[in-house]
Amino acid sequence: MSTIAAPSDPEADPRVKAVFDDIRATRKTAFINNLWRRLAFDPPLLTRTWSEVKEVMATPSALDPLTKELIYIAVSVANGCSYCVHSHTAAARGRGMTAEQHAELLAIVGLAGKTNQMATAMQLPIDALFDADVGT
Amino acid sequence: MSTIAAPSDPEADPRVKAVFDDIRATRKTAFINNLWRRLAFDPPLLTRTWSEVKEVMATPSALDPLTKELIYIAVSVANGCSYCVHSHTAAARGRGMTAEQHAELLAIVGLAGKTNQMATAMQLPIDALFDADVGT
Amino acid sequence: MSTIAAPSDPEADPRVKAVFDDIRATRKTAFINNLWRRLAFDPPLLTRTWSEVKEVMATPSALDPLTKELIYIAVSVANGCSYCVHSHTAAARGRGMTAEQHAELLAIVGLAGKTNQMATAMQLPIDALFDADVGT
Amino acid sequence: MSTIAAPSDPEADPRVKAVFDDIRATRKTAFINNLWRRLAFDPPLLTRTWSEVKEVMATPSALDPLTKELIYIAVSVANGCSYCVHSHTAAARGRGMTAEQHAELLAIVGLAGKTNQMATAMQLPIDALFDADVGT
Amino acid sequence: MSTIAAPSDPEADPRVKAVFDDIRATRKTAFINNLWRRLAFDPPLLTRTWSEVKEVMATPSALDPLTKELIYIAVSVANGCSYCVHSHTAAARGRGMTAEQHAELLAIVGLAGKTNQMATAMQLPIDALFDADVGT
Amino acid sequence: MSTIAAPSDPEADPRVKAVFDDIRATRKTAFINNLWRRLAFDPPLLTRTWSEVKEVMATPSALDPLTKELIYIAVSVANGCSYCVHSHTAAARGRGMTAEQHAELLAIVGLAGKTNQMATAMQLPIDALFDADVGT
């Protein structure tokens, strides 16, 4: 059940096929998950979105691949996106996340959720030392 | 401006002093930030909260200290907690976060925020492969 | 599965019947969706809620009906309300939303989600020019 | 600084004056807080909003006044509304909230924030027993 | 479907058995809900989480048990945690919540959600009187 | 106060100057707001972000410019991004939003916030008719 109808043959559109081929090549798998399959209803949006995901998440950079997935999961949990929590937890497992690291991720995400609420409830004044101009 | 009055002499209470001393020793700094200073209005809650923060964030574990702070920032951003974004960004800097890593954190957090919204707007069915029982 | 038991014969209560009749007349359909069917467990709350929805969403006003639905979807996505995303996307389709407009809605909602996170992560000082007293 | 310009003489409009008079009479104070002062830019919206606040929060009902304020604070914290956290914490104090109860509110709100994140991260299947039709 | 595989025999681990036994004794029921069953994949995290839930929610304190559950539901709704909304609504029913109180909870949570959005949209300046140092 | 230090002379970097020049040309104003000024600390991220904002928000498309800003405000309110609420409300005014339309936006955003919370609290089953495959 979705707000976007399931596509019958998305790769009939060459723009969609080009993106799906690149996803398969980048991820070294034949599997195309629903985010891309449903987004195929608008090829330009599909192309731009995949392009950004590939650049930010699948290109070697200053943070290692697993750390990037952990950050992605953390945001997705806090935003309450079921689909994204599932897809990025699977991705993190694919990049080597152990059960111990998973438990630690849950502990940090839970603790942050707790102190976020407490700090917001207290409406804490921000310490001057935290200002980037001061603290650096 | 806060919903909790600023304490005049929080360390007059020995339970508060014990926590503040442990914060100073653990962090190797004399600085006690407002979260702890205001939370001192209820010493048991202060004690339990610090105990958990120390255990999760300041104890060697399966994830390195900088990764833990990046996850903490990510959750705090998504939850919109100004105080926590400030305090944990300062902490991440203290643990060596470079400007390049900070920019990358912004890029990931931004991208996750974007796809979280898009996936929620599409109400995507979750791929069976993402199920932990199937995907493992 | 719900936290409110499914009603057996909600229209047996004349207050519920009056609301359902008005929904059918206003929307020109026999279909009553679950929000109203479950809310029928408390007729006064049902009555007040429908009254507000009718006034804000189904009365000619300064914004056209489709624009109002697009705003409603946008809020519902950001708040992560699955039910509301579904019901208001269906309503937007009923008011003429094209696939191109739907894709554009996804693009805006996604971009806003992205810059919301980035601006919150940077804890940007608000430009004085944005103050309504100054900027007007 | 606001997105709504500060009104110069809001009570010059009789609809605004009527609402402000009712707020003063209901709350037994001359103080009109900024929510109402700024909302005065649109008298019909001001009138409807106050009418609902008065009915839900200032009319004797099945929940006592302090409990209602605690629930209001809890939602406002989770939604990250600074203004509302401040105004309803002040209201709760006005209705007798003790420091001990305030600390307990922080503890519950924090714990809920924590387990909310953990449950979302785990994407827990909902126990059949929680279904209202089954569990009642 | 979950990001944590269903455990086959969680109580084979004595640490898990000890927690489950305490849950059963505290709640006077043989039923162990999925939060605990899945969290059993990491016994230390299970132990710490239950310990906090027991202390905050199942120990006599300044707020009565039903009020505590109502606050918990309120946070869970605003955070969009389906599992938590279900589990704590069931708990509130178990502690005597009537249909009338449930409807009132919905009314307050709905109204708070509404004014939270409106206050955030207006970016209201916070009244000086709300400052805890001033207002006390 | 920000987590990103204020840049001294951002346009000394030609990549930043190129973006700022394009912002000024696109918006027909000399004013560069803080989002771009602070984001200048990482020129590639600045370039990509502006490129997307320009494409989605400042290019003629299926939705008119004011409608796009109203949707952007709606998401920003629900996500609690103060900076974005301010900047996009100013942008909407610049695109002709009247006080009456602004009040109506507040009414819709408020109502959506309300029913989002109520629907989440009720954990409503989604009507089959809302499925895109069925409903189209």
Short description:
The structure is a homohexamer of 136-residue chains. Chain A is mainly alpha-helical and 136 residues long.
Shape type of chain A: elongated
Following the backbone from N to C, one meets helices and strands of chain A in this order, namely: HHHHHHH
Q: SS-based structural class of chain A? A: mainly alpha
Number of distinct beta strands of chain A: 0
Query: What composes the largest sheet of chain A?
Result: none
Poorly predicted segments of chain A: none
Q: Biggest interface: chains and residue counts?
A: A-B, 70 and 70 residues
Quickly count the helices of chain A.
Answer: 7
Tell me what portion of residues of chain A adopts beta-strand conformation.
under 5%
Which quaternary structure do these chains form?
homohexamer
Q: N-to-C terminal Cα separation of chain A, in Å?
A: 50 Å
Using the CA coordinates, give the radius of gyration of chain A: 19 Å
Report the helical percentage of chain A.
Answer: 55-70%
Q: Could you tell me the mean pLDDT of chain A?
A: 96
Could you characterize what this model shows?
Six copies of one chain form a homohexamer. The first copy, chain A, has 136 residues and is mainly α. Chain A is built from seven helices and no strands. The relative contact order of chain A is 0.08. Chains in contact: A-B, A-C, A-D, A-E, A-F, B-C, B-D, B-E, B-F, C-D, C-E, C-F, D-E, D-F, E-F.
Descriptive labels:
homohexamer; 136 residues; mainly alpha; 7 helices; 66% helix; elongated
